[in-house]
Write a structure and sequence with these properties.
This protein has 487 residues and is α/β, with parallel strands linked by helices. It has 13 helices and 22 strands.
Length: 487
């Protein structure tokens, strides 16, 4: 959670590799994307680096319970249900008739295992010590590491620290979690695919899982107290997603709040504040994320966390204690694995006086629903609010040869272009490969490019990237019409 309340400080005096007054030059707490990249960046600068992580969580939340499991589960769902091929082979097409949780988890566990080994190998290759256990601060330069078995405490000192402990699902006290009522960690541990499910909370995680289980044939009801879904996304894209999910029998109860959830051996009944009662075999509660800082004893290091367990940071992710940094989900928005990686690298460079540039403001957002959503740049609402003249260009996958080949008749790409300068201001995608395709638009915007580049360049055919060409021609023709009719 970056803030202006923490002043920019001069870099700390970087200890030389020969300085042995501390056990390590850098100690990283957590081995997720941010922690791993911080450790490796410091090691490549010739520093003595240690990473403290629980034995069963190497790779962090990202690899073990969050990003990697959920995205692998999505790919398993897409493959086994034959979703991507139903437009070609018919709505009843499936690779496997009766899909079990074991079918889904087989692929997930395989990928997790491989990713854990990749993380271990990268740390080993860069001579980073990996210490198994849970760390807590004793003083600003010392942590006590408790082994996973609860024994074998060790004190480790370091000149500099990076806190990269990530988050865990928030669990409201009023909700009794159990076999029938789960959070995003528990949903991948269900014993069977439920026939019906209530998803309480339509944020990114909630809507991703809602779309996955809907694809599996589960009757899903999405409940959220907010009046609209994914309000930060382009409304046309969100409407396309809702239309597609309704086609999979998903029901939406927006503007409704969950009052209570009752569970027994047969199933659950979710009661809304309006009095509606929704029966379902399972409830998945998605109430946001909580920073994993409770066990760190931050006060001993001169730090504190907010009510959501997040740590406040300033420039280059430095906390109010100059030699302690925090990166990744534990500092709050944007809480993305991709962003966390660069935060970790920047923190390590800053700690040891290495020149480093800030992250650019232009960052892509990817939502792994079925189908995918991704965007980069500004939205129509933002441009309108700022009185920026713009025009839109749209391409539909069904008009592309590649769209027909891959069986995607619903995908779309929208470009937002400045009416006067033709500068590309935003790109919004919905459909197959959206989270990959968005980087084409990101690169053009990052270089200050205009829509003319897309009009004049050659794009491989048949590809989904051709959507950029079609959308560019669409917006160019609209701008030409304005000139013609306004003359």
């Amino acid at each position: 959670m970056t803030t202006e309340s923490i002043p920019d400080l001069a870099p700390t005096t970087a200890p030389s590799p020969e300085d042995r007054s501390y056990d390590y030059d850098l100690l990283v707490i957590g081995s997720g994307p941010g922690g791993q990249k911080a450790a490796i960046a410091a090691a490549k600068l010739g520093r003595r680096v240690c990473v403290v992580e629980r034995k069963h969580m190497v790779g962090g939340v990202c690899v073990n319970t969050g990003t990697i499991p959920s995205k692998t589960l999505r790919e398993a769902v897409m493959y086994l249900t034959g979703m991507a091929q139903r437009d070609v082979y018919g709505a009843s097409y499936r690779v496997k008739a009766d899909i079990t949780v074991q079918d889904l988890l087989a692929r997930t566990q395989h990928v997790i295992g491989r990713e854990v080994e990749v993380v271990r190998a990268q740390l080993l290759r860069n001579h980073v010590d990996l210490v198994s256990g849970t760390a807590r601060f004793v003083d600003p330069h010392t942590v006590q590491v408790t082994g996973d078995s609860g024994a074998g405490d060790a004190l480790i000192t370091a000149a500099t620290f990076v806190i990269a402990t990530g988050t865990s699902p928030a669990r409201p006290a009023a909700v009794e979690f159990g076999p029938r009522v789960v959070d995003s960690d528990g949903v991948i541990e269900l014993e069977k695919v439920p026939s019906s499910m209530v998803v309480a909370g339509a944020g990114v995680i909630g809507i991703e899982y809602a779309s996955m289980f809907a694809a599996l044939g589960t009757r899903v009801t999405v409940v959220d107290k907010r009046p609209a879904l994914l309000e930060f996304c382009d409304p046309e894209v969100v409407e396309s997603l809702k239309f597609h999910l309704r086609d999979l029998a998903v029901s939406f109860r927006l503007g409704e709040e969950v009052a209570s959830v009752e569970a027994n051996a047969n199933g659950t009944v979710t009661t809304l504040s309006s009095g509606k009662r929704i029966p379902a075999e399972t409830v998945m509660y998605s109430a946001g994320r909580q920073g994993q800082t409770a066990s760190l004893d931050l006060a001993a290091a001169g730090l504190e966390a907010d009510s959501r367990g997040r740590i406040e940071v300033g420039h280059h992710y430095r906390t109010k204690v100059p030699h302690i940094y925090a990166v990744g989900d534990v500092i709050g928005f944007p809480a993305l694995a991709a962003t966390s990686m660069d935060q970790g690298r920047i923190a390590a460079y800053d700690a040891f006086g290495e020149p480093v540039r800030d992250l650019t403001a232009l960052q892509p957002i990817g939502i792994y629903t079925i189908p995918e959503i991704s965007y980069c740049g500004r939205t129509e609402a933002e441009l309108t609010a700022d009185s920026v003249p713009f025009e839109t260009g749209v391409s539909r996958y069904r008009e592309l040869a590649r769209g027909q080949i891959v069986g995607d008749s619903y995908g779309m790409l929208k470009l937002l272009v400045h009416s006067d300068t033709k500068e590309l201001l935003g790109v919004h995608l919905f459909g197959t490969g959206a989270t990959d395709l968005v980087h084409i638009g990101q690169a053009i915007m990052g270089c200050g490019g205009t829509v003319d580049y897309l009009v004049d360049t050659v794009i491989n055919y048949p590809t989904l990237s051709e959507a950029y060409k079609v959308a560019a021609l669409d917006v160019t023709n609209k701008l030409r019409a304005v000139e013609r009719f306004g003359a």
